[in-house]
Design goal:
alpha/beta, 17% strand, Peroxisomal Thiolase, Chain A, domain 1, two-stranded antiparallel sheet, 9-stranded mixed sheet, 34% helix, 389 residues, homodimer
């Protein structure tokens, strides 16, 4: 079994003056310090990022160089907004195949090198360019289709989505790493009256682009030193792919890859959704978070709106979701997000959250989607090592 | 130990009308057929590519969809011109960690979506953008620096480089998959009088951009069916990183990552360079092939020119190099190259090469560089399973 022995997280925000490789340095050093390890202890590096955002190509090379990690092997993986989780998955594979004893996983993205218009163009091209983008689909446009259909089938409303936005901003305001730290003026009215992006999604239904990086240090159980007070165990992992094209899907109200990845992760961890004390889910848009409640089994299909109305998703609810602010309020540097989620739940599982610490938090889930669901990664983490592997 | 049980290779060339995802289909089906397996047998897909060349982003999703492989996990990895080898390395790790029993590895690149000027710009950005590209370094310019220094230190000449170009074109002319199949008019004089690109490198010293894909099917030994007549074993693998920036290097006449990756691979295979019957090396430029002879231990440092003069690198020499035409004559669709090299040596090790079949070929090497040596992968493949793991 693999344990997370160190975590680090840079501030998410707009940092046009910092080269993408240098965004990685502080999180990696923080994670090493947290793990009581040195740079020399790292056997392999896996980076999750979307290369198309950066002028500097093939950043694996420059990150390894600037961290002083040559000649150690360095890998880069891309899975759109799930690139960070893909890196974590591959790093676990490298550890389990005994190629390495200590792995460093970095999620990083610098989005401020491009204009908002360029980013919108780039994001649309994560959908099917041959058959869909050619007709002008944008990334918010795709999720707007899902929202419209969910509204029609299940009576979900813009107010439900607004409640998710308000919740995430409330928590993100207290997260020192968040882009919208300190922003406490987000109300239902403000969300509902914000500028329309892709009907019914408004500005406050959309996550924000950001620059940022986060890092983890992983080791196999037998390698973990007694200096590490509280390893956090990766007790369940799931990954599934689904058609990229939206036009071929049977349903627009679920992300099938989430359902399949979650099933794998729950089975591997041998738990049920109700055993989860905390979840970080992929709220690239508010509708994505609501659909995730259903796909992850936190509630039945079509009942996401009730889960919201009953405040089951809040700090005081049955499964608090996105207590770090989520992509919405923390910001979404795409390659960094999957690792940032893990950072947040590790802090919670250790009892070290900067705010909204869940009492008796033993089991947490991260959920990270690539694109419009063509990839999904679900991880289950715990602070107690299960007795059966 | 992991065996290659199926290989497939598309034609390399200019195929602007074929979407990048569809370039993958024929090689994967060919590899499956070769392995006597079906699509359903594939547990995981790993794609090596450089995403920046494609309008379609995150091609893992669309490749899995068009191949009908959903919901199987699909990963994408980028390591510049070594992306294919990175994919092979990670696929072996996924197999060795028992996440999968059968892996499909795809190397693919479509370069004809961009103009030559755009590609040149893109290639320069695989060097250090912050400190080098800003002064106008291009990709041929980097390798020209290495050539100039090699000329000054060791007396290597443009004629030696021209001999490599002529050799690779001679072999590539007989490779049915090569971009320059049938091109038999390349002479020393023609190379030397071709247009200067970056002094001393001329057009015929540079490999050619191409579109293309190649695929492998891998299995762990215990899974391999008796239907597979001749598995080819991955008996040695090495990967090393080195500084991306050229200005910080101790030497311009060697690629340190090649030396380190080769050492790992030789040690793992427990062989010496002289045991190699055939090598496919990374000749993005003729000087890169000459330096590889030295770094891989085929000859001493500075003696690459003698290795060429004595025709040790030819079909009749001690270690035939690039009998499939190499990047020079086969074409270099960057993500595909590492897998294409493996395809060629698998065919040789099985005795199925379309031309220039090495007699009694038992052990072969592939050498794949990312960028200007910030990554290097060396694989050693054999048609006999070593008795000691």
């Amino acid at each position: 079994m693999i344990g997370i022995v160190g975590v680090g997280h840079g501030k998410f925000g707009k940092m046009p003056e910092i080269p993408v490789q240098d965004l990685c340095i502080q999180p990696v050093l923080e994670a090493l310090d947290d793990a009581h390890l040195q740079l020399e202890d790292i056997d392999v590096v896996v980076i999750g990022t979307s290369p198309e955002y950066h002028v500097q190509r093939s950043i694996g090379g420059i990150v390894a160089e600037h961290l002083g990690l040559n000649p150690k092997p360095v890998f880069l993986t891309e899975a759109a907004c799930a690139s960070g989780s893909a890196a974590l998955y591959l790093a676990c594979s490298l550890l389990n195949s005994d190629i390495a004893e200590t792995a460093c996983v970095i999620g990083v993205q610098k989005m401020s090198e491009l204009s908002t218009a360029e980013i919108l163009g780039l994001m649309g091209r994560v959908g099917d360019v041959q058959w869909e983008s050619i007709f002008g689909t944008t990334f918010p446009g795709y999720y707007a289709l899902l929202a419209r259909r969910h509204f029609a089938e299940f009576g979900t409303t813009s107010e439900h989505l607004a409640m998710i936005s308000v919740k995430n901003h409330q928590y993100g305001a207290e997260n020192p790493k968040a882009l919208f730290k300190g922003k406490k003026d987000v109300t239902i009215e403000k969300v509902l009256s914000s500028k329309m992006v892709a009907n019914p999604l408004k500005v406050y239904d959309c996550c924000a682009n950001a620059d940022g990086a986060a890092a983890l240090i992983l080791q196999k159980e037998e390698k973990i030193s007694s200096d590490v007070e509280q390893p956090i165990w990766l007790i369940g992992m799931g990954m599934a792919s689904a058609p990229m094209s939206v036009l071929t899907r049977d349903s627009l109200t679920e992300i099938v890859s989430t359902r399949l990845a979650a099933r794998q992760a729950y089975e591997m961890a041998n738990i049920r959704p109700k055993d989860i004390d905390l979840a970080e889910v992929h709220d690239c848009f508010t509708i994505a978070e609501l659909i995730a409640y259903e796909d992850l089994g936190f509630c039945e299909k079509g009942k996401g709106k009730d889960f919201v109305e009953n405040e089951e998703n809040t700090y005081y609810g049955t499964i608090p979701v996105n207590l770090d602010g989520g992509l919405k309020a923390k910001g979404h540097p795409v390659g960094a997000t999957g690792i940032s989620m893990v950072y947040s739940v590790v802090k919670q599982l250790r009892g070290e959250a900067p705010a909204f610490q869940v009492q008796d938090c033993k089991m947490a889930l991260t959920h990270n989607i690539g694109g419009i669901g063509q990839y999904c990664y679900v991880n289950i983490l715990g602070n107690e090592r299960p007795s059966i592997k």
